[in-house]
Amino acid sequence: MSEDLKEVLLKLRKLHPNAERVLPRPGGWNDGNAAKILRAFLVRIGIDKYVTFHTLRACFTTHVLASGAEPTQVMKMGGWADFKTFQIYVRMAGVDVKGETYMFR
Question: pLDDT tens-digit profile of 49-92?
Fold first, then answer.
């Protein structure tokens, strides 16, 4: 995480120390409408390219895993209940083979 983002999130946490989350969650986010909410947000800020919720979740997950985060923590952040499904992202990030390719140098 960048230091700038970390600073912003820590300031938000101080403003609302008893809040469950640092950032608000739009209504409908947990009702299967995350994709619609994301699409409306992207259109509102001028991004017309087709981006799906799944794509953003996958990109976030593979980047965080590749940076060295613990898979169990990333799984918790992304809301996966099934480790078998989550393993797809571990493979995509290459962390399951990290350090194993040294013999091909």
Answer: 777 777 888 888 888 888 888 888 888 888 888 888 888 777 76
Q: Give the DSSP per-residue string, 27-92.
A: TTGGGT-HHHHHHHHHHHTT--S---HHHHHHHHHHHHHHTT--HHHHHHHHT---HHHHHHHHHH
Q: What dihedral do alpha carbons 77, 78, 83, 86 form, nearest 10°? A: -130
Q: Which amino acid is at 57?
A: R
Give the global pTM: 0.52
Cα 80 from Cα 82, distance rounded (Å): 6
Q: CA-CA distance, 87 to 61, in Å (whole number)? A: 11
